[in-house]
């Protein structure tokens, strides 16, 4: 009996701790303050008489000007009238409309009327500058208003010393929850998870769980399932809310846990987690530590952000832009970050020019070669980029691997051959019409077939090889593919022309 009592006490503690961990708080607004805010808001609406956004979905210029004027005048009441009840995304757009130096001042003037979740909508550079300029007291109060995942998203951009300064001023439960999330690796599930969740002991009944949900005020703002744990906080499973409400009250929670386990480790890479959500259509998943203890939950809205970030990184990488480059970065930082890629491209251009130099005498004898050879190289470069883009994306989504690599390579080569034949006919006709030399049409036609096949091979094999070597194909493939298509294009066209017309 005594052992059962200990288990029951521990289980009740599990339920309490699980729902009390890092809760959203709202400072009570006095009735007089609410009435004053409503009066100010009504006055502002009458004065402006304008919707927030125009037909294109952009913030209206008049609204941006009104915000800027209110910040310059230090009119907190006016700002509260403009900002109160706005969604965090709308607040972030208004924040970005200001001069960077005025953004922290706006937040200080708004006080608790500013939703700190708006900072999570900003790019890292803009967000870091704002956070570093804010008073510590303002930042602490703002962080306390956020869900844990949003709070971590803001704090992780700060130096360790600044993080500790803010964490030290938070209540113990909140401090421990945030510090634990910050200890996990960057871009891991532990950084993305929320520490707000509902967990109950296995022996609780459906009725006890429902009563607990109805009677407890400190519940997460939104949740989709109830987690079932043992006294050691080991995750036994989850029960979705629809199953909970359809089950009779006397049934034990452990008897209705889902057979399909939605679970990831806190150390799992966020991209791998996102892929699980995409593959199995998850809405949420439990996050456990290495010992199998429940530490948080990751939801589909967090995964959407991850997918967007990863796609953004891949797109930038294909263009030779660093993943962390943002529109708010300085001119010096942008120029410095792009220099290495441009330098590498310069090297490949010199290599291609060296190939042209090998046929300098032949080009002097037949000027038509100088006119046509950029067309061959350009077609090869575009074809190679097309194949490379498909290959890099397929590798990123795990659609291309050892099992189907051979088939995909052959498919790309076949597509390159067919396009080569088609453009051989087109450019052959153009060359004959342009220069009146049927043999020149044959030469450029053969060159088109060769360069498009080479582009297909380079576009697929180079990303595959880089992936095998552990390099990011999105970052590294471009210069190599460009080099292959340029060198092969120039060499094939000029070489075939040299042999055919005996120009050596």
Largest sheet strand order: 1-2-3
Helical stretch tally: 22
Q: Beta-strand level of the residues, as a percent range?
A: 5-15%
CATH superfamily of the largest domain: SLC41 divalent cation transporters, integral membrane domain
CATH topology of the largest domain: Tetracycline Repressor, domain 2
Give the second-level CATH assignment, the architecture of the largest domain. Answer: Orthogonal Bundle
Number of domains: 3
Our measurement of the CA-to-CA distance between the termini, rounded to an integer number of angstroms, reads 102 Å
Following the backbone from N to C, one meets helices and strands in this order, namely HHHHHHHHHHHHEHEEHEHEEHHHHHHH
> Major sheet, described briefly?
3 strands, mixed
The stretches of 5 or more residues where confidence is low (pLDDT under 50) are 1-49
Q: What global shape is seen?
A: elongated
Gyration radius (Cα, Å) is: 31 Å
Give the proportion of residues in helices: 55-70%
Q: Give the CATH class of the largest domain.
A: Mainly Alpha
What structural category arises from helix and sheet content?
mainly alpha
In round numbers, the mean pLDDT is 86
Strand segment count: 6
GO molecular function: magnesium ion transmembrane transporter activity; metal ion binding
Organism: Blastochloris tepida
Main location: membrane
Subcellular location: Cell membrane; Membrane
